[in-house]
């Protein structure tokens, strides 16, 4: 007998961690074991619209709620799976699914893709805390991205009911011969930042140390690839670039996906992602690992479970510009170290972060929840 599971979540576009992992989940071999019904709660607009309160998001919330009720009544699922939001309006939307599931005493599997639900819970008003406590007092299990995040549910879920499942992604499929020759002939050291171009993601932290880097290393070129989600951040960045005469050293590539992203990763020498706010387990770091790059990033979330300081990259404290500059300079000056760390990145990725491993862990978790 195949049990019915309702998966709730967004799919790309836009491309972000939750939508990518939801896509992997509904494409997995869960269908071989369970009956899967899927509620797609995507908002196809830009990432800047996520978690915002506007007419479109309100109408989408009610539309998805009525679809949820229809699926709920027709299919009577045994488990409701939902990647829970850590923002106020995103969580209010999630309550449209969580409250009915709790009222009907369904098993709920909550997937936390971030690392700040405890902070979010502590910031809730009295009423929202009562509602949240009511939901989590039901048949609720949780998934977190790393061991150090098991306390992120703020004791709302018993530790024995929390599963640790790191993200997994597909390997890079472009064959090495497509890029090796160009890479060997290149004279510049290519440094890549790949994420949304927001100050909170650390792109401006990297940008501001570029003058100091090129002063000693003029053969370095930087690529900033990602969605420009905040006009003020971009205006500030452009102003800094022109004031410091950095145009010839920097490419602002915008959004890259598919083979274009893979080629950009494979043709880079160093990956830098220094966020200054809480992160869970950034997929961009896994992508850089899959491409065999040495990585410099902030020591937050589960990043220190992916990057072993001094082995496949460097970890820096949040906002530490001196450490960021020093780490980049070390890798620029030491080709052998770059290559050694890059090989370690790829090895760690293949051992721990493949999408196939992730799918097996997810299937095992659904089986455990159903049998509980």
Give structural attributes.
Rossmann fold; 16 helices; globular; six-stranded parallel β-sheet; alpha/beta; single chain; 372 residues
Outline the secondary-structure elements.
Layout: E1 4-9, H1 17-26, H2 30-33, E2 35-40, H3 55-75, E3 79-83, H4 88-103, E4 107-111, H5 117-123, H6 126-136, E5 140-144, E6 162-164, H7 180-185, E7 189-194, H8 203-207, H9 210-216, E8 220-225, H10 231-243, E9 250-254, H11 258-266, E10 270-273, H12 283-290, E11 295-298, H13 303-306, E12 313-316, H14 321-333, H15 335-352, H16 355-371
Parallel strand pairs: 1-2, 1-3, 3-4, 4-5, 5-6, 7-8, 7-10, 8-9, 10-11, 11-12
Structural features, described:
This protein has 372 residues and is α/β, with parallel strands linked by helices. The relative contact order is 0.12. Mean pLDDT is 92; it is low at 177-185. Helix content is 45%, strand content 16%. It has helices at 17-26, 30-33, 55-75, 88-103, 117-123, 126-136, 180-185, 203-207, 210-216, 231-243, 258-266, 283-290, 303-306, 321-333, 335-352, 355-371; strands at 4-9, 35-40, 79-83, 107-111, 140-144, 162-164, 189-194, 220-225, 250-254, 270-273, 295-298, 313-316. It is globular, with a radius of gyration of 22 Å. Helix 13 (303-306) links the parallel strand 11 (295-298) and strand 12 (313-316). It is built from 16 helices and twelve strands. It folds into two domains: 4-168 and 355-371, 3-Layer(aba) Sandwich (Rossmann fold); 176-352, Glycogen Phosphorylase B (Rossmann fold). The strands form two sheets. A six-stranded parallel sheet has the order 2-1-3-4-5-6, with helices on both faces. A six-stranded parallel sheet has the order 9-8-7-10-11-12, with helices on both faces.
């Amino acid at each position: 007998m195949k049990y019915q599971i309702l998966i709730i979540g967004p799919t790309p576009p836009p491309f972000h961690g939750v939508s990518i992992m939801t896509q992997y989940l509904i494409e997995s071999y869960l269908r071989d074991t369970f009956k899967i019904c899927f509620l797609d709660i995507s908002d196809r607009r830009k990432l800047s619209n996520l978690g915002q309160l506007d007419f479109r998001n309100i109408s989408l919330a009610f539309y998805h709620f009525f679809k949820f009720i229809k699926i709920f009544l027709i299919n009577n699922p045994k488990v409701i799976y939902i990647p829970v939001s850590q923002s106020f309006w995103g969580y209010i939307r999630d309550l449209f699914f969580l409250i009915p599931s709790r009222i009907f005493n369904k098993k709920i599997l909550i997937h936390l893709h971030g690392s700040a639900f405890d902070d979010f819970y502590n910031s809730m008003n009295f009423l929202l805390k009562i509602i949240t406590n009511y939901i989590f007092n039901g048949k609720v299990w949780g998934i977190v991205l790393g061991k150090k995040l098991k306390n992120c549910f703020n004791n709302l879920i018993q530790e024995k009911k929390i599963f640790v499942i790191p993200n997994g992604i597909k390997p890079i499929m472009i064959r090495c011969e497509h890029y090796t020759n160009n890479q060997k002939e290149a004279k510049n050291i290519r440094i890549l930042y790949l994420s949304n171009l927001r100050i909170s993601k650390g792109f401006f932290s990297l940008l501001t140390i570029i003058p100091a880097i090129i002063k000693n290393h003029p053969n370095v070129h930087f690529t900033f690839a990602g969605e420009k989600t905040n006009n003020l951040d971009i205006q500030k960045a452009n102003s800094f670039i022109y004031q410091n005469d950095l145009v010839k050293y920097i490419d602002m590539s915008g959004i890259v996906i598919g083979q274009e992203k893979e080629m950009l990763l494979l043709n880079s020498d160093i990956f830098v992602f220094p966020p200054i706010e809480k992160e869970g387990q950034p997929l961009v770091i896994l992508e850089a690992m899959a491409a065999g790059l040495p990585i410099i990033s902030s020591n937050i979330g589960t990043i220190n479970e992916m990057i072993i300081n001094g082995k496949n990259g460097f970890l820096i404290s949040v906002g530490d510009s001196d450490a960021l500059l020093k780490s980049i300079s070390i890798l620029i000056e030491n080709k052998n170290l770059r290559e050694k760390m890059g090989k370690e990145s790829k090895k760690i990725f293949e051992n721990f972060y493949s999408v196939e491993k992730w799918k097996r862990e997810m299937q095992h978790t659904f089986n455990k929840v159903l049998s509980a």
